[in-house]
UniProtKB/TrEMBL annotation:
Highest taxon, organism lineage: Bacteria
Cellular component terms (Gene Ontology): cytoplasm
Keywords from the named record: Oxidoreductase
GO terms, molecular function: oxidoreductase activity
Organism of this sequence: Microlunatus parietis
UniProt keyword annotation of NAD present: no
Domain NADP-dependent oxidoreductase: 21-307
UniProt cross-references to SUPFAM superfamilies, sorted A to Z: NAD(P)-linked oxidoreductase
InterPro entries: Aldo-Keto_reductase, NAD(P)_OxRdtase_dom_sf, NADP_OxRdtase_dom
A Pfam family recorded for this sequence: Aldo_ket_red
Protein name: Aryl-alcohol dehydrogenase-like predicted oxidoreductase
Length: 340
C-alpha cells in the first residue's frame, strides 16, 4: 500500500483538500466513549500523514468536538488545515434533539461560538446541517455569503439537501460542496442529486462511507448505531451478509473491506471526497492505506453485482429523523425507499 492522500478540490470554487477527509463526530461520543487524549492523537496522526480536511459540527458533543479540535491544532499552522463546520442543529438537555434553526441571526450567533471554541478567526467551509423548513434557503445562504465578504467564512457548503434546494442555493452564491451519505450501501444520491451537483460544478463530501461501522466494523452496538434501522433485527443480518460478499474482491486487491469501500467512493468521480470517521489511530492508518486500492470499471461493475443499488434493508435514520432530510424528497414528496 501507498501511504499518502489524494488531493481534490471541493467543486469549482472550493478549497483543495486531502481525500479522504477526517470526520470528527465520533471523537465526541457519537459511537461510544473516546478518551480525549486519544482523540487528539487521532487528529495528529491524520495531519502528520498529510491530511488537511477536518469535518465537524458545532453541536457534536454540544461543542466538545470543536474544543477538542482546537486543542489538537494548538501548535499547528492554521493554513495547513481546512475546517468544515455544520451548524443549525438545536439540542435539548435531556433528549439531545431540538430541531433546526438556520435564521441569519441564529447562524451568526452559532459562528461566533464556533470561532471561539475552535480558536480561529475563520471557518473554511460553513454549512447548515439540515434544511430549515421555516427559513428559505436563499436567506440562509445569503447570510453566509455576507460572512464570506467579512472574511469570517471562506466557502459555503450544504448538507442533506435535494436537487431543487441545491439549485436555489447556487443561484444566490457559489456552493463548493454538499455533504451527503454515499456508500456501496447507500446510493440514493445517484437518482438526481449527483447529476445536479455535477451540472452546477458542486462537489460532494460523502459521509457514512463505512455504513456507520456496518462495513469493516461489527461488534456491540454503541452510541447512535443502536437506534439505526439498518442495525435492527433481521435487517442487520441481511446487511452484514451483503457486506460479506465484498471479502473475496477485497482480498484480491490486498485490502480490507473498509479500504475497498473507501476506494469505491473515490473511484466514482474526482468530485467526490470521502469523509471517514476514525476513533482510533489504527483506523487512521486504514484510511490512509485506502489510497493504494485502485478500482477500474470492471471492479465497479463487480461491486454492483455483489451489492446492487437498493439491496440494503432499513432506512438510514429512524423515521423521525428521515422526515428532516430534504435530500430524501423527490418532486415535493419523500422518496419511497426500495431498501425495506
Amino acid at each position: 500500500m501507498i501511504t499518502s492522500f489524494a488531493t481534490r478540490t471541493l467543486g469549482r470554487t472550493g478549497p483543495a483538500v486531502s481525500s479522504p477527509g477526517l470526520g470528527c463526530m465520533g471523537l465526541s461520543g457519537a459511537y461510544g466513549d473516546v478518551d480525549e487524549d486519544q482523540g487528539v492523537r487521532v487528529i495528529h496522526d491524520y495531519l502528520d500523514a498529510g491530511g488537511t480536511l477536518l469535518d465537524t459540527g458545532d453541536f457534536y458533543g454540544a461543542g466538545h468536538n470543536e474544543t477538542l479540535i482546537a486543542r489538537a491544532l494548538r501548535d499547528r499552522s492554521r493554513d495547513d488545515v481546512v475546517l468544515s463546520v455544520k451548524f443549525g442543529a438545536l439540542l435539548d438537555p435531556v433528549t439531545m434533539m431540538g430541531g433546526i434553526d438556520t435564521r441569519p441571526v441564529a447562524l451568526r450567533n452559532f459562528l461566533t461560538y464556533s470561532l471561539r471554541r475552535l480558536g480561529t478567526d475563520h471557518v473554511d467551509v460553513y454549512r447548515p446541517a439540515r434544511l430549515d423548513p421555516a427559513v428559505p434557503i436563499e436567506e440562509t445562504v445569503g447570510a453566509i455569503a455576507d460572512l464570506v465578504e467579512q472574511g469570517l467564512v471562506r466557502h459555503i457548503g450544504l448538507s442533506e439537501v435535494g436537487a431543487e434546494t441545491i439549485r436555489r442555493a447556487a443561484a444566490v452564491a457559489p456552493i463548493c460542496d454538499v455533504q451527503l451519505e454515499y456508500s456501496v450501501l447507500t446510493r440514493g444520491i445517484e437518482d438526481e442529486i449527483l447529476d445536479t451537483c455535477r451540472e452546477l460544478g458542486i462537489g460532494i463530501t460523502a459521509y457514512g462511507v463505512l455504513g456507520r461501522g456496518m462495513i469493516g466494523g461489527g461488534g456491540e452496538l454503541t452510541g447512535g448505531r443502536a437506534i439505526q434501522p439498518r442495525f435492527q433485527g433481521d435487517n442487520r443480518a441481511h446487511n452484514e451478509a451483503l457486506v460479506s460478499r465484498l471479502e473475496e474482491l477485497a482480498r484480491a486487491k490486498g485490502a480490507t473491506i473498509a479500504q475497498l469501500a473507501i476506494a469505491w467512493v473515490h473511484a466514482r468521480g474526482d468530485d467526490l471526497v470521502p469523509i471517514i470517521g476514525a476513533r482510533r489511530p489504527e483506523q487512521v492508518a486504514t484510511m490512509i492505506d485506502s489510497a493504494g486500492v485502485v478500482l477500474d470499471q470492471t471492479d465497479l461493475d463487480r461491486i454492483d453485482e455483489l451489492i446492487p443499488p437498493g439491496a440494503v434493508r432499513g432506512e438510514r435514520y429512524p423515521a423521525r429523523f428521515m422526515a428532516d432530510l430534504d435530500s430524501e424528497r423527490r418532486s415535493g414528496t419523500y422518496a419511497i425507499s426500495s431498501e425495506g
